[in-house]
Amino acid sequence: MSIYIYLLCFVYLGCECSALPSKNQLNNGTNLDQNINSTTISNDLNTTITEKADNVKEKVLIQLYYECLCPFCTHFYTEVFIPTIREIGDYLDVRTYPYGNAWTNKRNGSYVFDCQHGRAECYGNKLHACALDLLQNKTQALVFNSCLMEGNSDDSDADYCGKNQNVDADSIKECAKGNKGTLLLKYYGDESAKGQYNYVPYLVINGEHRTRSNFMYKVCKIFTVTPPPCVEVLKSEEDNK
Fold first, then answer.
1. 121 occurs within a structural domain
2. How far apart are CA 72 and CA 88, in angstroms?
3. Does 215 have pLDDT greater than 50?
4. Which residues on adjacent β-strands are paired with residue 100?
5. CATH number of domain containing 141
6. What is the domain range of residue 146?
């Protein structure tokens, strides 16, 4: 019965991975990283990420907060989000935040990450963050991360997805295992805190939180000039009303 309820929730109700009830676990968090000297994210790193996202004008802003091992994040990201990006990605400013219901602490010069689905998720989130940083083609990075989520977002998945998408997976893994991956995950943790969400996947469209149902239709309705891929979507939705 419990499996049936889970599947019903997953398929029909659009459930989420809720935030953990307490942050006291940070005191017992696992140190996943090397010691690092910096107390803040480097200005160069922040500037690089911001420029990649902001070098777009007059596009609908999509912000998606997620974590790589949440089953509901995986379903939305791979089955809804990425197909929409493939259709109308040229008309969107897409920003994803691979952090989710994680916590960050700093102890003895090291950042400590405590992720909802354990140590593997912290590393997987780093792989996602590094792909976003290293791949100059934003859509390619999003599709690569979708491929990771179809597996377990681990090294073997990175190798598989890299081979199939002609992506240098070794560089992404090296980033995730090093200080840059640490800084990137810290950055996405800081940015995620601004979202003030208590579950993931959490979707924001043009600065407003929106539910995930009829995602492409909701986006298409916003455009003043309807992009060609949206014409049939809008017509179909209106015909069904």
1. yes
2. 23
3. yes
4. none
5. 3.40.30.10
6. 14-239
Residue 1: inside a domain:
no
Q: Mean of the pLDDT values across residues 122-132?
A: 99
Question: How many independent structural domains does the chain possess?
Answer: 1
What confidence score (pLDDT) does residue 20 get? 53
| pLDDT score at 2 | 36
Please check whether residue 117 is in contact with residue 111, taking contact to mean a CB–CB distance below 8 angstroms.
Answer: no
pLDDT of 230? 97
Is it true that the peptide bond before 201 is cis, omega within 30 degrees of 0? Answer: yes
What does the pLDDT average to over 72-101? Answer: 98
Q: Is residue 21 part of a domain?
A: yes
Q: Tell me if 69 sits within 8 A of 117, measured CB to CB.
A: yes
Can you give the three-state secondary structure of the chain, one letter per residue?
CHHHHHHHHHHHHCCCEECCCCCHHHHHCCCCCCCCCCCCCCHHHHHHHHHHHHCCCCCEEEEEEECCCCHHHHHHHHHHHHHHHHHHHHHEEEEEEECCCCEEEEECCEEEEECCCCHHHHHHHHHHHHHHHHCCCHHHHHHHHHHHHCCCCCHHHHHHHHHHHCCCHHHHHHHHHCHHHHHHHHHHHHHHHHHCCCEECEEEECCEEECCCCHHHHHHCCCCCCCHHHHHHHHHHHHCC
Residue 7, in any domain of the structure: no
Chain-wide mean pLDDT for the chain? Answer: 84
pLDDT of residue 16: 76
